[in-house]
Automatic annotation (TrEMBL):
Keywords associated with the record: DNA-binding, Transcription, Transcription regulation
Protein origin, superkingdom: Bacteria
Protein name: TetR/AcrR family transcriptional regulator
DNA-binding region, residue range(s): 40-59
Stretches assigned to the HTH tetR-type domain: 17-77
Length: 232
């Protein structure tokens, strides 16, 4: 039986001639162009030049394909916690926070799969907790209680994830919702002289940028340092 021709004039690949790895790699290529939300099985089939049934042979639903993509991300990207020393805990935590945020903000698909969609239990809770035992131990050695150390690390983790997600959602907006012209009309020097006197501050309200990220991160680290000082 002749293999049916594809819509672009080439002969479509036969069922079974494509592997799971090719499908997953192709899914990343399509998602890079149209996003995770807009990725569809028919679109992926056209990209791979196969019939859509060849995709469904391996992945019955889009969620199963996204699970496979998530597993690939967890294998390919380094989500480990940097080793933190008690005597250098603040700088180490700061570097770790910036590294993780950069990984998510520089890779929209990673952000969509891991943070927005969620890992659906991957990695498991125990391995995830095992990864943060070392930084918690370092903070305890620096003078914090176990609860204070865990709360500090958890707060930094929430900051990293929420900042990356908010920046990702803001990047999806086709047009700037709050252009400079908007703020020029809103910032009344007579009604709000202090805010209006600070260059650029009004333009960044609610923005998940580096300055806001560092301000919150420093606040968390300052609080942790106060725990260490009091108990020391």
């Amino acid at each position: 039986m002749a293999t049916p021709a594809s819509t672009n004039g080439r002969r479509r690949r036969e069922r079974g001639s494509i592997s799971v790895d090719e499908i997953v790699r192709g899914a990343f290529e399509v998602a890079d162009e149209v996003s995770i939300d807009n990725l569809s099985m028919p679109q992926l089939a056209r990209h791979l030049d196969v019939g859509v049934t060849s995709i469904y042979w391996y992945f019955r639903r889009k969620d199963e394909l996204l699970d496979a993509m998530t597993e690939r991300v967890l294998l390919d990207y380094d989500f480990s916690v940097l080793s933190i020393e008690a005597g250098n805990w603040r700088e180490s935590l700061r570097a770790h926070a910036h590294r993780m945020r950069k990984m998510f903000t520089n890779n929209p698909i990673v952000c969509d799969l891991i943070l927005i969609r969620g890992t659906r239990g991957m990695p498991a809770a125990r391995p995830a907790l095992e990864k943060i035992e070392q930084p918690v131990a370092a903070l305890v050695a620096a003078g914090l209680t176990a609860k204070q150390a865990l709360d500090t690390y958890t707060a930094i983790s929430v900051l990293v994830r929420s900042s990356a997600v908010l920046q990702r959602l803001q990047s999806r907006t086709a047009d700037d919702q709050f252009p400079r012209e908007y703020w020029e009309q809103v910032l009344d020097a007579e009604a709000m002289p202090l805010i209006a006197s600070i260059p650029g501050r009004g333009y960044r309200i609610g923005m998940a940028d580096d300055i806001n990220f560092d301000h919150i991160l420093d606040s968390i680290l300052d609080r942790a340092a106060s725990f260490a000082t009091v108990q020391g």
